[in-house]
Amino acid sequence: MWFQVQASLTYSFAEPAEVLLMVEAARSHDQGVHAEGLTIAPATDIARLDDSVSGERRCVFTAAGQTAITYRADVEVLARECNLSGVSATAIRDLPGEALTYLRGSRYCPSDRFEAFVEREFAELLGGDKVQAILDWISAHVDYRAGVSDPATTALDTFVDRAGVCRDFTHLAISLCRAADIPARAVSAYAWKLKPPDLHAVAEVYLGGRWRLIDPSGRAPVDGLVRVATGRDAADIAFMSIFGRAELVGQSFAIRRIKVRAR
Amino acid sequence: MWFQVQASLTYSFAEPAEVLLMVEAARSHDQGVHAEGLTIAPATDIARLDDSVSGERRCVFTAAGQTAITYRADVEVLARECNLSGVSATAIRDLPGEALTYLRGSRYCPSDRFEAFVEREFAELLGGDKVQAILDWISAHVDYRAGVSDPATTALDTFVDRAGVCRDFTHLAISLCRAADIPARAVSAYAWKLKPPDLHAVAEVYLGGRWRLIDPSGRAPVDGLVRVATGRDAADIAFMSIFGRAELVGQSFAIRRIKVRAR
Amino acid sequence: MWFQVQASLTYSFAEPAEVLLMVEAARSHDQGVHAEGLTIAPATDIARLDDSVSGERRCVFTAAGQTAITYRADVEVLARECNLSGVSATAIRDLPGEALTYLRGSRYCPSDRFEAFVEREFAELLGGDKVQAILDWISAHVDYRAGVSDPATTALDTFVDRAGVCRDFTHLAISLCRAADIPARAVSAYAWKLKPPDLHAVAEVYLGGRWRLIDPSGRAPVDGLVRVATGRDAADIAFMSIFGRAELVGQSFAIRRIKVRAR
Amino acid sequence: MWFQVQASLTYSFAEPAEVLLMVEAARSHDQGVHAEGLTIAPATDIARLDDSVSGERRCVFTAAGQTAITYRADVEVLARECNLSGVSATAIRDLPGEALTYLRGSRYCPSDRFEAFVEREFAELLGGDKVQAILDWISAHVDYRAGVSDPATTALDTFVDRAGVCRDFTHLAISLCRAADIPARAVSAYAWKLKPPDLHAVAEVYLGGRWRLIDPSGRAPVDGLVRVATGRDAADIAFMSIFGRAELVGQSFAIRRIKVRAR
């Protein structure tokens, strides 16, 4: 499927500050990026710090005064295999080196704390069936509700609070998968059909020899996800990191399905 | 300087389990590894998952029954510039892409929590002088004392407890540096003159265009460090991760200075 | 000094709920309550659960629909000795029984976590001088700033965040005093000259044979405090506990100095 | 039933320190204390700080050098009604004033954090049936296992860790009951048939107009409990608080059933 994505961000900087931006569609194995445009007004020098392994696109610039950032792209998303049933776990020895880091605890995913729970609840399952059971458990025990969590909320908080938003569902799913020795990481994505439109937080698990996208909060179809950034948890995939201070003036994210373009 | 390092680890596995081992000296810009030998008894297949960026050496094998691991190497450590005074901070745009991850909070280094403290205490300093002031503050306010911390202890705990061991000093230093927008990461190392001998936890900060080793607990000279693993915090640099269960039978780490060998 | 205090609270209850109210001026050794009136509209049965030891006044009623609570009183506050300098600590054996509970950790005051810090920073001081040094340390290291903390914030958070409001200053002061084996508790009070007017959170320490009021955030004079509730921390002194759900319609607290009334 | 209880505690004090001791059987409505003896060697002055409301017995003395404390008593425990089925909750207005404090969060029982979980899992139940469902949930989801928890472990930790000892089970039960607006508190007790013998941590809930003992870890019969101290959680019921330093030399607790004595 083809999608057109757009991000519009306006911030006001009282003093010049460096900004790290991660809103561009990733150039990854499962999607192709076309007809892309990033504009920053007023114009400024942009340095690129793209990641070749994950395909994540990052750029850095110095912002001053009121700054408007606009990104637009047409993206082709390849069909994704979403069925986890029967997919085998990958032995540690067969993991790609960069997947090791996604077995470990992180800022919002203290997976070491969930080992006893995962052992107690899901010990008899393996691989994709275990991940599916974890997702089902989360669905049955956690409510989607705004206002319960904040930027400091961890998976441990969500496990206790039993409520949260997409970021919290994702952190909990990642934590439980890692506690089961299954590599899991966070992905930000433009999400077709997500209501209200926003940059969505989903997860990716390494099973059966490759990374597979899952949506722990179940708010949007996986085939309509246009991936942006990849990381251990929300700390890594923030769409904008400001090294200084700024005021939000306005921001919006949009995605719509488009007809296949002739190339 | 040249060092001979040795690790001897014996564990007993009631059932076969995969083991990820990170005790080998890194092949990095600041050290050369020679005359190296890793033996696992009984013999088993070893898969390598080395990291080309950091030079970190990792291997994975399946252990069963009582398993003895021995590693030995002669390592040449190049002279290191330890003086932080006057070294400038590196702009975000000039960081190598892989350094970005070390600006963010992690499992044991919730650096976002320390932004107000760092702003309050160290705002007027920059770059190497700021890092040095952070190290001095830690020295003056935290006691080196075993038994206060455990594997779940975070930098936030150490900041309150005002005591800990090398791992805790390292986590606190990393957290405070990241809160000041200076990339900081954890490094495990054989440490010459460390008493008692052990695998040491130190830190590395990105300043003046390159990574620089520091020893936040001040227990060993930086020029006598033989680096092993590199990561966000202790979660990443464990010398052994067992994906299953095992009993410790015995373990020791040793390092001694040796004469320069003719090559 | 004499003060007139007033509280006006309006809440809307979709379903009937029990409400525990603690806005009435305490009848304690250091203040006398006169010309008092509490009205709840629409009228409802009020059960009293006053505490004879602390003088705390509590009442319980069932609220339904939109409920307006008004409390007004004239209160005579006796002169308070605020100088802590040279006041001796009280031996544990000489404490009144009900003071023991205020030596221990509580929900927002995990005083056990601060023992090492207090020993490190204030070991050489005793009694009132130690409490004064603790208050001075807090003043010098914590900023008064709204929006940093929320109802879940503990003294440990404030110690790290280095900012908070009166409730947070009070929790930190209580925690540090208890860590020094000095009984300390939380008090809610109408506070003369507090800007903006609100129910204030202050503390009380047991020194030299009696409880002494202190204002850790230094926002209002101690002689102008009309005490209401007393407890271990904010969990105990909430002016209103709703056992069910309600919407806030409006609330205000006021205090003004009045001329001595002829009795 | 009649029981003989005994505590033997030996500590070594390098410097004189005040000690608060709570090992004596409480003089409460549900038990009578007879033939009691407390000896401290070497002899020292003992100050009493007993609590008339709970019947809790406390004494304070100054210890120096090696100090041996021995307590022995014959205690008659009245039959206790343990069946919670159908027992109604008590309205807030009908609670005794001292029960209010046991509705609130405390150091190890952050009950406010469990409100959503309790609402989700137990909303349709009331009073004793709700408490029984909470106890059943804990039994089904938490393992009794030593070594998982330490003195800093809270109910929130236990909820995640899914394992703990009697203290942890008690904290979790108390937290969940309070989150359901049922007053709950911690009680230390000599416990007949407890293996290995120790001072046991159990809970008490206020239902149907009175306090009712429950044993959340289910390790000992409620009719064989000789109650000692009562408080919000473990912070309040420690059998010995040392205001200074001491080394443990040895300690033991014993209880045996005895024949009814002629009085």
Label this structure with key terms.
homotetramer; 263 residues; alpha+beta; four-stranded antiparallel sheet; 5 helices; 12 strands; 18% helix; globular
Account of the 3D structure:
The structure is a homotetramer of 263-residue chains. Chain A is an alpha+beta fold and 263 residues long. The mean pLDDT of chain A is 96. In chain A, strands 1, 2, 3, 4, 11 and 12 form a six-stranded antiparallel sheet that branches. In chain A, strands 9-8-7-10 form a four-stranded antiparallel sheet. A two-stranded parallel sheet of chain A has the order 5-6. Chain A has five helices and twelve strands.
What's the arrangement of secondary structure elements?
The structure is a homotetramer of 263-residue chains.
Chain A: E1 2-21, E2 31-41, E3 46-48, E4 59-77, H1 115-122, H2 127-141, E5 143-144, H3 155-161, E6 163-164, H4 166-179, E7 184-191, E8 199-207, E9 210-214, E10 225-231, H5 234-237, E11 240-243, E12 247-258
Parallel strand pairs in A: 5-6
Antiparallel strand pairs in A: 1-4, 1-11, 1-12, 2-4, 3-4, 7-8, 7-10, 8-9
Helix pairs in contact in A: 2-4, 3-4
